[in-house]
Amino acid sequence: MGSSAEHVLAVVRRQILAGDRAPGDKITEVGVAADLDVSRTPARTALAALEAEGLIEKRDGRGFTIKSISVADVEKSIKVRAVLEGLAARTMAENGMSPETEAKLRRSIDMSQEILDTEEPEIDYIGQYQEANRIFHETIMYDCGNELVGHAFERIARLPLTALGTLAFDRTTLKRERMRLTVGHSQHVIILDALAKRDGQRAERMMIEHSNATLNYEQLFVDKGNEAPLLPLYQRYGGPNGRRATLD
Amino acid sequence: MGSSAEHVLAVVRRQILAGDRAPGDKITEVGVAADLDVSRTPARTALAALEAEGLIEKRDGRGFTIKSISVADVEKSIKVRAVLEGLAARTMAENGMSPETEAKLRRSIDMSQEILDTEEPEIDYIGQYQEANRIFHETIMYDCGNELVGHAFERIARLPLTALGTLAFDRTTLKRERMRLTVGHSQHVIILDALAKRDGQRAERMMIEHSNATLNYEQLFVDKGNEAPLLPLYQRYGGPNGRRATLD
DNA sequence: CATCCGCATTTTGGATACAAAGTTAAGCCG
DNA sequence: CGGCTTAACTTTGTATCCAAAATGCGGATG
User: Do residues B8 and B49 make contact, with C-beta atoms less than 8 angstroms apart?
Assistant: First the structure.
């Protein structure tokens, strides 16, 4: 499990996402190997994986470069995620949920409901809400009966802000944030209802709307010169808690 | 370009798809290395790639196994492909086509039109039609303005019968086949029209219908014990011509 | 002074050696 | 005869070495 290659992969990915390696920077096998004090072999597999994840780009004979991820890229990844999650929801509605799946979804909804019922939500609750949200989306994505949906999704899952359950939080406007959480929560409830009634079309449409909501919310905050740098933005929202689930 | 690892990957993939390596068979680094007379290094990268493609499965300490691909799996992959292609078509319609893109699509349509206009189509024309079809789908998928669509698609692209432009052919019933090609062709025409008019919804809906048509056609032929073996089926339709574009 | 040829350095790909972990099987002891 | 232990083999992960390809620089030549 805790192989060296996986460790290298996790460390370098974190470095990229944290901005320690800036977009455009060169990154090579030997460099990474020396940096983390391992041989070139695990460094090599890690770089191959990072390329597949779309975080670095191979330049023919001159190493890899850190890919610059723009806000436009995030929009694109969210749109792909939306249709895939929509398909997952429809498939699950058509096939019917297993009792275990329904229990998981209901637990997730109960969790977020409880959080929203709290009078004065603390910052710490946000992490819990994110966790509940993540469970909801992951359950539908991976238990829908078409495992290729999740398979395809994993190809873009590592891109910042696309990860399942990632909601952008502005910690300075908790009131507004609470409203947003309430909307998201109600959408979860509606989706579960559609799933229970095996209404595939409604489940799909609602899920697509819900997934794209992440996008719309983003647009409220970002002053988009369309190629605005993503990484600072990524650091601004969602702290380590928001990333933990996807980075390790 | 023609690196050894890529060569190993192509060869082993062909072996799997051709049935030379049966589902359930064990496949290891050393085995492949010895088989193709290369070292373990390229064999390892090839196996990693094959696992990402979903053709083999890692069994903890006991090598990989060839995954058994059922008809149900093919249906699943086609459904994923359909929503991704639908998103691509919608995106392209909303963003508008570049003149080059429109030219490519029109050329593809002219090609298939010409083939269908031929009085007595020979078997050889089928390969040309497939090529035109492939160009049409690839153009939309990769030129739509959201490169992540193609990126996600590549994750499932290697699964048999999912590949772009793959249409199943029954060589014994050319008349019926011609009818089918005509339907597909007309759908291409409609999609191009929707793209030109920048009608995203119509482009998406038509493309989804069109992509799923591959699936419906499959169902006409396969006596589905639902877990019917895929590989014989794959060999029955589409000969080497149908696979060439995706395997090398 | 510009251009072209060639060498050196960088970088990757492949081969092999080595070590660790797990699996299988056989033998030994109860 | 059965269960447990151990030993050998399989398999994978990592390190290092070698070779090939490409790039960039520098010198020589027109």
Answer: no
Is the C-beta of residue B4 closer than 7 Å to nucleic acid chain C? yes
A52 contacts B84? CB cut-off 8 A: no
pLDDT value for A92: 98
Judge if the beta carbon of A44 is closer than 7 A to nucleic acid strand C. yes
Separation in Å, CA B104 to CA A4, A45, A154, B109, B132: 47, 37, 31, 9, 10
Q: Which residues contact A130 (CB under 8 A, 6 or more apart)?
A: A165, A166, A167, A238, A241, A242, A245
Q: What's the mean pLDDT when you consider all of chain B?
A: 81
Most B-contacting residue of A45, A56, A75, A80 (CB-CB within 10 A), to test interface: A80
Token code pair at residue B84: 């991704």
Tell me the mean pLDDT in the region B6-20.
92
Residue carrying the six token digits 């806000």: A71
Residue nearest to nucleotide C13 (CA to C1'): B3
Compute the distance between CA of residue A108 and CA of residue B101 in angstroms, rounded to an integer: 45
3-state secondary structure of B6: helix
Residues of B in contact with A52 (CB under 8 A): 52
